[in-house]
Specification:
The structure is a single chain. The chain is an all-alpha fold. It has one domain. α1 runs antiparallel to α2, α1 runs antiparallel to α6 and α2 crosses α4. The chain is elongated, with a radius of gyration of 17 Å.
Length: 166
């Protein structure tokens, strides 16, 4: 059962990335489902109360930090909640790596979007509302894609994942 729950984390991160790319929104149900799945998985994985507490502290700390970033207009609200939900899964051992990898992925994504927005692209790319929004010169960056990339890269190496498969 815990292995099934671990498969749902990357799947939900991918769904969040997809939704952010096509609509520039990350639905609340994704972050809430990630929270619920972690609460379900923690006892199945055998986390001690101390380990559970550290994961929760990391999640709440990440939420406080990202809400502040949202209030400053640096990130979207969905990005803030998704990062906090992913941070809960990463926990203390892996949160810094997750933050750095996601930031690097976000930098690459931003550079690629800037280049695409300055390039004469085939008109067919502008026929869909989501792609036209994505390629709009002053458009936002769907940072959920970077958060997903960071999660997909790091999660198979995370202490939580390795604990389950060992």
């Amino acid at each position: 059962m815990s292995q099934l729950v671990l498969l749902l984390f990357p799947l939900l991160m991918f769904v969040a990335a997809w939704r952010d790319m096509v609509s520039m929104t990350i639905p609340n149900w994704i972050s809430l489902t990630l929270l619920g799945l972690f609460l379900l998985a923690a006892p199945l994985i055998g986390l001690s109360w101390g380990e559970f507490g550290l994961h929760m502290a990391v999640g709440f700390g990440a939420l406080a930090l990202t809400i502040a970033m949202f209030a400053l207009g640096w990130i979207g609200g969905g990005d803030a909640k998704l990062f906090a939900a992913a941070a809960l899964w990463m926990g203390w051992p892996d949160i810094l790596s997750y933050a750095v990898i996601s930031a690097l992925a976000g930098g690459v994504l931003t550079v690629l979007l800037i280049l695409a927005r300055k390039t004469a692209l085939p008109p067919v790319l502008y026929t869909q509302e989501w792609s036209a929004r994505l390629l709009k010169k002053d458009g936002d960056v769907p940072y959920g894609m970077a958060l997903c990339a960071g999660a997909l890269y790091l999660f198979p190496q995370s202490s939580l994942f390795l604990r389950v498969i060992s």
